[in-house]
């Protein structure tokens, strides 16, 4: 009997190691260890042995069977590996071909900037609002503590709107293309809903055009009004924005300044990325900044006259406002270094598809 | 408005050991921005005083000389092109290592060099080469230092001329003209960098006896104070170097001692002065009045101005001076002048400003006056000018100094509550600190119950308008950089983002995701572009003062901008998909224009008209489906604007909201575009209130649907919508019919097209069997033949 199993074992191991394909392997499996295979047949013969012999032979037969099953498993992985290798050998692509992409469009840099900046202020609970671009003098200037002919108005080279040859005029004065988004301040207060946390991003217009100045540009205006709003909170909002937008490496500075519609007023500076805030590149004066600082824009605590114009009691409410140029802010971060900022709005598709 | 402030000069009034950089930093943080620091000493490095010994013609160049110069320890040979060389002249010698200014503002380094075979050990400088452009010595002339310094040859130029200095370029905010003078700036700096400020005004020599002239203020609104002092026996030469130096460092050109002194005093106090030649004055009265019709002045800048309605200082017969802006040529100080009238005034800022704008004329004086100057400054400035003239030009004051005021000076007083200041800033600043800050800045405080009465110093009278201004003074001197950063923790607003902005952003993203490139055009367009698109300029608002002729009208539609963009791009980018989502400006009678959000998508240069149309239509349909609205389309007959065979109007909820189709040949040509342009333009605000991004749930079908594609031969002009209605009407189980492909090729007869349709069938209660599907398709086939003459090809 032992010989039978030994022979069977030898035959089976030989057969398993010889098979090359999954089909052959299955045939060999059925032949040797299938339900009606040679192993099963040989096991049947054990029935005729004495108890002792059967116990001993049975143990031997089981060892053989386990061994054959192991051999099958091994052959199966060998055959599968071989099949895989063969397939991989046949399948090949040229991985040096250039990458392709489905035709994806492009959002304008300005749109991207608007999205990003409104998102940052949205984290602080600021709500996006829209105010007119074509507005009354009252909202653009007068209600902002800038009475007619005040010299401060000179800082805003203003376009006047006409209907034909004469300037459009109404109860609230002349009609202008708003030179800043601050025209939304009193309008927002007049909605009569407090507290206010608004962010207004819109087009502004000034009579200027140069490599650094656009006649149409964007500003983002923030306004927060509630009881007991303080300078330190404006500082907090500013620092949060700068850290999120410019990154934690850039330093910030609040510097006193003068605007009619805020008191106190300041300008917000961010350290220059070109000279790292040192004001010098290779010992030569940095061309981009002023002594290491770039002006982000103006801000301040809303002037009591402006609060009054908005129908609010300055004894009870206080607030801060800021208005910064969007294009300028984007250029300050991005390192895009567009020589002439007017390129932004020339609609050259070769430019637009870069972003 | 900027001031160029010498650190040396400032230090005459404040005691500080801060380095220029430290000073600039501290000052910027509490006062005004120092925009740059110009190291004058460094400019003069390796430049020394030399004595010209010999001058010889250059052997190889007609216009050059070879000179020997004593530079102290040795003599050097230098090749020089100067035309004013004389032996014994004292000169500024730039030695190797010096950096001199060349004409374009760049600096170049001086080296030992050989010029036309002659070695040159340096260069003799003109003032412009050391950066003093204002000091004019003549074309190709060398700066002669003989009258300026007697320092021995070899002395560094900076030491010899007192130029071991730095100049701060400080931006003076419009509310602080008091700091546009060195004394005012030093006072401000004293408070900002905590340095002791000391200055005493010059005492005014009132003079005695009757003045040869009298002053009458006729326009009491335009002029609040007018002073005049007559001086005789003055001798007018050049001003001394110490005055010239300070003028030159400020970019002012020295002219003669009197003009230089009045300019110097303006730099010192920010108060302009003017001087007339006494002999040029007709009669014995000076009037401050409005100019009348026909009156003119030939001003110091060589131009003539008409003075009707403008404030002037006039004698008995004619205006002598455009008040506060510029004097007249005829009455100005000349070298021969021996008697003069010095005037100092306080003019109304708005009046000066209006005249400056009207005459398109500005000057240093005008820039100051239009900011609003203190009524107390004229006496101080006049006293100082008299003192300097006596010192430099000699002369005596004749008669009493005239001082006409329209009202006595009353200082402003405000009540100041320290508690309110603290709560406004948000930090705890002590009473003592606030008191010190305000006192340092010149305010005087007097306790009155719980608050203080603060008297405003005269130099701030125009600037301080209310209690809130004191908060600023305290806060800035405390230093914003010293305050903590705190995120606002108060109540939240209950508003939501403006809907038009949300949809604008959403639509832009949809377009970009579909391959469209966003254009961003100016809201202002040209008349030509409006007219090319058939819009009368009358139907758009215009700007009264356009910057350029091509940006004059507020666009009532986005289309002309888009067509212009396509025209500009077509040569380099032959085909593209573009879009703009922006506002247009629709005029409204008696009101601000309606700023409406418009959507415009364009495709140009693409030849398959049907596919192009389908893509734009698909875009609109997708937007509608996604936002819960519906668009319907109707063939459009508007041949002026749109191709009649390829355009539809777009409707939503029964209202026309836009157009989709090919731009008419006329407009395409009017814009110079060579290839077809398809546009989809939609007035977003017409349906915006109905748009939403939330969707209600519909159960997914339990049983699968079956899709079969069939090719149908149809007449060229049979319309898909009709075909689809036939297919879907063939049986309740036919759920959808879409077009897969349209083919017009060699196998398709002329006048026909082969359209591949996909037919989707589904039953709500079972999976359809093959036989059922075949039966349905057979019905579809029959119906197509019957109703639209379509032949289903096997």
Task: Write up this protein.
The complex is a heterodimer of chains A (355) and B (794). With 355 residues, chain A is of the alpha+beta class. Chain A has helices at 2-18, 22-33, 38-44, 51-90, 109-123, 137-140, 184-190, 231-246, 304-309, 326-334, 349-352, and strands spanning 127-129, 134-136, 159-162, 169-170, 173-177, 196-205, 216-227, 252-257, 262-271, 280-281, 284-285, 293-302, 317-325. Chain B is α+β, with helices and mostly antiparallel strands and 794 residues long. In chain B, 26% of the residues lie in helices and 29% in strands. Chain B is built from 20 helices and 40 strands. In chain B, the strands form 11 sheets. A 7-stranded mixed β-sheet of chain B has the order 27-31-32-36-35-34-33, sandwiched between helices. A 5-stranded antiparallel β-sheet of chain B has the order 5-4-3-6-11. Chain B has a 5-stranded mixed β-sheet with strand order 13-16-19-20-21. In chain B, helix 11 (418-425) packs across helix 13 (468-478). The mean pLDDT of chain B is 94. Chains A and B meet through helix 5, strand 1, strand 2, strand 3 and strand 6 of A and helix 2, strand 2, helix 8, helix 11 and helix 13 of B.
Largest sheet features of chain B: 7 strands, mixed
Number of strands of chain B: 40
Q: First CA to last CA of chain B: what distance?
A: 85 Å
How would you describe the shape of chain A?
A: elongated
User: Shape of chain B from CA axes?
Assistant: elongated
Largest interface: A-B, 93 and 99 residues
Total beta strand runs of chain A:
13
Residue ranges of chain A: pLDDT <50 for 5 or more in a row? Answer: none
* Oligomeric state of the chains present here: heterodimer
Which consecutive residue ranges of chain B, at least 5 long each, have pLDDT under 50?
none
Mean pLDDT of chain B: 94
**What percentage of the residues of chain B does DSSP assign to strands (E)?**
25-35%
The main sheet of chain B orders its strands as 27-31-32-36-35-34-33
Query: What is the H/E string of chain A?
Result: HHHHHEEHEEEHEEHEEEEEHEHH
Mean pLDDT across the residues of chain A is 90
Put simply, the count of helices of chain A is 11
* Cα-atom radius of gyration of chain A: 40 Å
């Amino acid at each position: 009997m032992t010989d039978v199993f030994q022979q069977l074992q030898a035959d089976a191991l030989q057969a398993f190691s010889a098979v090359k394909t999954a089909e052959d392997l299955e045939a060999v499996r059925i032949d040797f260890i299938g339900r009606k295979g040679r192993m099963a047949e040989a096991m049947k013969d054990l029935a005729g042995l004495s108890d002792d012999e059967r116990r001993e032979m049975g143990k031997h037969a089981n060892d053989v069977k386990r061994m054959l099953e192991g051999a099958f498993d091994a052959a199966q992985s060998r055959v599968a590996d071989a099949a895989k290798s063969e397939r991989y050998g046949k399948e090949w692509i040229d991985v040096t071909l250039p990458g392709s992409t489905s035709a994806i469009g492009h959002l304008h840099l300005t749109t991207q900037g608007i999205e990003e900046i409104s998102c940052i202020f949205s984290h602080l609970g600021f709500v996006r609002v829209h105010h007119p671009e074509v507005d009354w003098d009252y909202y653009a200037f007068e209600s902002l503590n800038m009475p007619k002919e005040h010299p401060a108005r000179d800082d805003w080279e203003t376009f006047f709107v006409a209907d034909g040859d004469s300037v459009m005029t109404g109860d609230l004065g002349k009609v202008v293309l708003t030179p800043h988004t601050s025209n939304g301040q009193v309008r927002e207060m007049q909605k009569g809903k407090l507290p206010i946390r608004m962010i207004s991003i819109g087009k502004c217009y000034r009579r200027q055009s140069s490599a650094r100045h656009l006649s149409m540009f964007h500003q983002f205006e923030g306004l927060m009004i509630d009881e007991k709003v303080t300078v330190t909170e404006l500082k907090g909002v500013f620092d949060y924005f700068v850290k999120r937008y410019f990154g934690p490496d850039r330093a910030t500075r609040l510097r006193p300044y003068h605007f009619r519609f805020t008191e106190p007023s300041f300008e917000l500076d961010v350290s220059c990325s070109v000279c790292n805030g040192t004001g010098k590149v290779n010992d030569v004066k940095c061309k981009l900044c002023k002594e290491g600082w770039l002006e982000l824009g103006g801000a301040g605590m809303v002037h009591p006259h402006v609060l009054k114009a908005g129908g609010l009691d300055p004894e009870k409410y206080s607030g801060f406002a800021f208005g910064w140029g969007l294009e300028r802010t984007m250029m300050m971060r991005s390192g895009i270094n567009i020589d002439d900022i007017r390129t932004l709005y020339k609609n050259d598709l070769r430019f637009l598809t870069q972003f | 408005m900027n001031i160029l402030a010498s650190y040396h000069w400032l230090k005459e009034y404040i005691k500080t050991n801060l380095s220029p950089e430290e000073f600039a930093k501290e000052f910027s943080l509490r006062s005004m921005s120092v925009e740059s620091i110009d190291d004058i000493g460094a400019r003069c490095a390796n430049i020394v005083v030399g004595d010209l010994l010999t001058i010889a013609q250059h052997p190889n160049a007609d216009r050059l000389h070879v000179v020997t110069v004593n530079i102290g320890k040795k003599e050097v040979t230098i090749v020089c092109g100067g035309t004013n060389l004389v032996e014994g002249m004292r000169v500024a010698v730039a030695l190797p290592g010096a950096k001199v200014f060349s004409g374009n503002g760049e600096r170049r380094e001086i080296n030992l060099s050989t010029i036309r075979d002659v070695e040159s050990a340096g260069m003799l400088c003109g003032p412009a080469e050391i950066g003093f452009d204002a000091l004019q010595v003549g074309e190709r002339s060398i700066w002669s230092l003989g009258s300026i310094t007697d320092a021995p040859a070899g002395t560094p130029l900076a030491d010899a001329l007192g130029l071991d200095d730095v100049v701060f370029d400080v931006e003076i905010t419009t509310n602080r003209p008091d700091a546009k003078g060195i004394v005012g700036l030093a006072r401000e700096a004293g408070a900002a960098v905590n340095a002791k400020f000391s200055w005493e005004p010059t005492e005014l020599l009132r003079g005695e006896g009757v003045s040869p002239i009298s002053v009458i203020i006729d326009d009491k609104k335009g002029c609040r104070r007018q002073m005049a002092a007559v001086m005789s026996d003055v001798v007018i030469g050049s001003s001394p170097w110490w005055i010239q130096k300070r003028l030159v460092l400020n970019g002012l050109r020295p002219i003669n001692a009197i003009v230089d002194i009045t300019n110097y005093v303006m730099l010192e106090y920010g108060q302009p002065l003017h001087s007339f030649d006494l002999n040029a004055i007709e009669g014995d009265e000076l009037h401050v009045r409005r100019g009348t019709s026909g009156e003119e002045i030939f001003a110091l800048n060589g131009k003539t101005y008409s003075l009707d309605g403008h404030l002037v200082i006039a004698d008995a017969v004619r205006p002598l001076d455009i008040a506060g802006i510029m004097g007249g040529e005829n009455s100005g100080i000349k070298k021969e002048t021996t008697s003069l009238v010095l005037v100092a005034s306080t003019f109304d800022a708005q009046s000066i400003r209006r005249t400056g704008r009207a005459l398109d004329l500005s000057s240093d004086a005008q820039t100051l006056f239009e900011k609003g100057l203190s009524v107390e400054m004229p006496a101080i400035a006049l006293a100082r000018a008299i003192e300097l003239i006596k010192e430099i030009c000699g002369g005596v004051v004749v008669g009493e100094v005239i001082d006409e005021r329209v009202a006595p000076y009353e200082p402003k007083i405000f009540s100041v509550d320290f508690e309110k200041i603290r709560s406004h800033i948000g930090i705890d600043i002590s009473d003592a600190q606030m008191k010190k800050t305000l006192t340092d800045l010149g305010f005087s405080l007097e306790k009155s119950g719980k608050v203080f009465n603060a008297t405003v110093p005269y130099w701030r009278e125009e600037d301080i308008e209310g209690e809130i201004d004191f908060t600023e003074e305290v806060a800035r001197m405390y230093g914003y950089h010293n305050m903590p950063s705190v995120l606002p923790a108060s109540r939240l607003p209950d508003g939501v983002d403006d809907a038009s902005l949300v949809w604008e952003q959403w639509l832009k993203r949809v377009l970009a995701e579909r391959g469209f490139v966003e254009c961003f055009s100016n809201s202002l367009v040209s008349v030509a572009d409006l007219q090319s698109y058939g819009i009368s300029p009358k139907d758009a608002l215009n700007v009264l003062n356009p910057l350029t002729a091509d940006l004059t009208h507020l666009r009532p539609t986005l289309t002309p901008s888009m067509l212009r963009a396509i025209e500009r791009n077509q040569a380099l980018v032959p085909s593209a998909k573009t879009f703009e989502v922006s506002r247009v400006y629709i005029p409204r009678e008696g009101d601000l224009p309606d700023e409406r959000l418009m959507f415009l998508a364009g495709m140009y240069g693409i030849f398959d008209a049907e596919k192009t149309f389908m893509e734009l239509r698909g875009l609109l349909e997708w937007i509608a489906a996604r936002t819960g609205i519906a668009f319907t389309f109707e063939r459009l007959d508007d041949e002026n604007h749109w191709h009649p065979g390829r355009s539809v109007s777009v409707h939503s909820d029964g209202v026309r909201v836009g157009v989709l189709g090919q731009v008419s040949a006329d407009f395409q040509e009017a814009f110079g575009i060579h290839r077809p342009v398809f546009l989809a333009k939609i007035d977003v605000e017409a349906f915006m209130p109905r748009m939403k991004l939330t969707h209600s749930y519909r159960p997914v079908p339990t049983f699968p649907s079956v899709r079969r594609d069939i090719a149908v031969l149809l007449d060229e002009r049979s319309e898909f919508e009709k075909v689809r209605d036939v297919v879907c009407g063939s049986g309740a189980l036919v759920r959808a019919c879409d077009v897969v492909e349209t083919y017009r090729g060699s196998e398709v007869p002329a006048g026909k097209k082969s359209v591949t349709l996909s037919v989707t069938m589904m039953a709500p209660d079972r999976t359809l069997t093959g036989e059922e599907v075949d039966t349905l398709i057979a019905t579809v086939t029959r119906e197509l033949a019957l109703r639209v003459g379509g032949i289903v090809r096997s």
